[in-house]
Design brief:
351 residues, disordered N terminus, seven-stranded mixed β-sheet, alpha/beta, Metallo-beta-lactamase, Chain A, 20% strand, 11 helices, 14 strands, 2 domains, five-stranded mixed β-sheet, single chain
Length: 351
């Protein structure tokens, strides 16, 4: 499938040390657009031709990634394609950021890197899909989702992911000391277990850790260790001093961020307000499904799953801190199979 080059608005940025950055837009899934970044920089250790993230591999995203590299060739006046890459750095193990590797890997000699805690997402992809689907089924049962709806949501979770397969990874970030030439990494678990942000001089590649206009999606740690709202909020605080001096933040979606501290504070406030809202709702007994409906209203399709996970992450955060109790504990004790859990604010936190 040919992708007209005039459809692409490849934006250019430059670091304080002369590194050239090209933002390549892609349609990751219907209704979800995102970016990969090509970085060209000379360093004492050699030239780096680095692709940060690879798109989803779904639909036309692979062709759009290739077309973006063709646009870069026109902008630089030098032919450029997958064979010219030296490295591919994956910010985190979500499909819209690494799915394109299935297509790119056979076409490039580039070394691929990811954080240790997301390594299995890439190298044992089929195994992870099976394991998380089982945990998701249990979560949805405990959230109070009906059998029919639960099966539909699990199928939605699996359908776009079943087209991919495992790919080989050449190195992990902790093993190389969280740096590669001029690129530095910080582990920021929460949105994803092995999420990293990548600093290149005065520019930060934030993946999905910090995004403009939206608060990045959260899911319960019950589904995947080292995710969950607790890890995410702690990672936001960890980022602030590490990213001091950052002039520009480029995310995996949405517009660039020019005031990182302000954006972090806004996201923190979103979650603080949402936690207060959930506490207020749970002055009366509710399931996660009911909390989700109160927070986000009537949603359908994959958005229904995202809403349930977001609500579940906030309920889990409060429960971990002893602010909630289980209101139907006796019922659960007498039921061998997973069933709906009803949460309620403990008396000392009510009101």
């Amino acid at each position: 499938m040919d992708v007209p080059l005039d459809e692409f608005q490849v934006r250019q940025f430059q670091t304080s040390g002369g590194g050239r950055i090209f933002q390549i837009p892609m349609l990751e899934f219907p209704g979800l657009s995102g970016y990969a970044y090509l970085v060209l920089i000379e360093d004492v250790s050699g030239p780096y031709r680095v692709l940060i993230d690879s798109g989803s591999g779904f639909g036309v995203s692979n062709q759009q990634l290739e077309a973006g590299l063709q646009v870069v060739s026109g902008l630089t006046g030098e032919p450029f394609g997958f064979p010219d890459l030296t490295h591919i750095l994956i910010t985190h193990g979500h499909i819209d950021h690494f799915g394109g590797l299935t297509y790119v890997r056979p076409r490039t000699p580039a070394l691929i890197g990811v954080h240790e805690l997301d390594l299995r997402n890439l190298t044992n992809y089929e195994e992870r899909l099976t394991v998380v689907a089982r945990r998701l089924d249990e979560f949805l049962q405990e959230a109070g989702v009906s059998t029919g709806c639960r099966l539909e949501l699990i199928e939605l979770y699996k359908i776009t992911k079943s087209l991919l397969r495992s790919v080989r990874v050449d190195f992990t970030y902790e093993a190389i000391g969280m740096s590669l030439g001029p690129f530095e990494m910080l582990h920021v678990p929460g949105h994803c277990a092995g999420h990293v942000v990548i600093r290149l001089q005065d520019v930060l590649f934030s993946g999905d850790h910090v995004l403009q206009d939206i608060s990045p999606h959260q899911s319960p740690e019950h589904l995947t260790q080292s995710t969950g709202l607790d890890h995410y909020l702690k990672s936001l605080e960890l980022l602030r001093p590490w990213a001091k001096g950052i002039r520009l933040t480029l995310g995996g979606h949405n517009a660039p961020i020019t005031d990182l501290n302000s954006r972090v504070e806004t996201i923190q406030q979103v979650h603080a307000e949402r936690l207060d809202t959930v506490l207020g709702l749970l002055e009366h007994s509710h399931t996660v499904l009911e909390v989700s409906q109160a927070l986000f209203g009537e949603v359908h399709g994959y958005n229904a799953l995202l809403a349930l996970e977001e609500a579940g992450a906030h309920v889990e955060y409060l429960y971990q801190r002893g602010r909630l109790g289980i209101d139907n504990l006796e019922e659960l004790e007498n039921t061998p199979e997973p069933g709906p859990i009803r949460y309620r604010c403990l008396p000392r936190y009510a009101g």
